[in-house]
Amino acid sequence: MLLSCGAQAQVQNLTGTLKKVKDANQIVLGVREASFPFSYSDNSGNTIGYSQDIAMRIVDEVKKELNLPHLDVKLVQITSQNRIPLMQNGTIDLECGSTTNTFAREKQVGFSDSIFLYGIRMVSKKSSHINDFADLAGKTVASTAGTSDEKLLRTMNEEKKMNMQVISPKEHYEAFQDVASDRAVAFVMDEPLLYGERAKAKHPDDYVITGKPPVSENYACMLRKDDAPFKHLVDGVISKMQTSGEAEKLYTKWFTQPTPPNGVNMNYPLSAEMKALFAHPNDKALD
Fold first, then answer.
1. What is the DSSP letter of 97?
2. For FRET with 168, which of 21, 147, 175, 206 sits at 20 to 30 Å CA-CA?
3. Are 97 and 39 in contact (CB under 8 A)?
């Protein structure tokens, strides 16, 4: 099928990620192995989750924009530590997982409109009687390597002279296991990820999520810095999902109902802050 003159001009004038995708007939998504329920692998090795569903809606829009109905979608597993370098060096084109939009990171990569708002808290065993961050003084505490939470925890430890021993495993589930095995007294992380790890535990009621959040943060999809055309497309998809009610239905699917592959239900109701975000989409960092 022949493209119209306008469509031909549009394709010829592509820049940044859209040009890269068009030239390669391939878009590369950075995905997580175990960031439940945002981006994680099921029992068959497929990547699923709340953020992954958003990523695939963006892919659908890219296919329409570039007239590439058979666009190849390649998935590359990433970690909290390597996700920014892999975006900067061109390995991945888009990452929708559990990446926090911070002012510091905005100097390195680009971010879409926010897809999730949350506070930083901690999970511990009920028997530990940990109620707030001050109770962590002198104790061993886990936080996933390469995250804004790990940075916050180490800064808190230094500035408040709390004498914590901070350990930093690579994945969230490893940090939770540190608590389960009593290697650490608490796991400090984004609240929804804590709910996810607790929901997967053999005895979820043995654990409690506590602590007054020292900061509120937001997840967004990560893209290349200063790539206005691609950001415009991505933001357009997210904004439409949020204002149309589609995002709220997606939230219900992943946070208040049984999820694959094991039927885990996080029982994590939609917050007033999330409702406000869906009504007024924006890309503001909160730190």
1. S
2. 206
3. yes
List Cα–Cα distances, 12 to 9, 22, 25, 90, in angstroms.
5, 10, 15, 21
pTM: 0.86
Q: Tell me whether the omega of the peptide bond preceding residue 261 falls within 30 degrees of 0, making it cis.
A: yes
Beta strands in 100-215 (DSSP E): 110-125, 140-142, 165-167, 186-190, 207-210
Is the Cβ–Cβ distance between 124 and 204 less than 8 Å? no
In the beta sheet, which residues pair with residue 77?
31
Record the tokens describing residue 77, joined without a space.
Answer: 């597993």
What domains sit in the chain, N to C, each tagged with a CATH number? 5-117+217-279 (3.40.190.10), 119-215 (3.40.190.10)
Q: CB–CB of 218/116 below 8 Å? A: yes
Cα torsion 219, 81, 33, 230: sign: positive
Q: Please choose, from the candidates 87, 72, 69, 71, the residue with its C-alpha nearest in 3D space to the C-alpha of residue 30.
A: 87
Beta strands in 108-153 (DSSP E): 110-125, 140-142
Distance CA 118, CA 273 (A): 8
Residue 68 CB neighbour total at 10 angstroms: 15
Give the residue from 98, 82, 226, 81 showing the smallest Cα distance to 151. 81
For 39, the 3-state DSSP assignment is strand
Token representation of residue 25 = 């007939």
3-state secondary structure of 113: strand
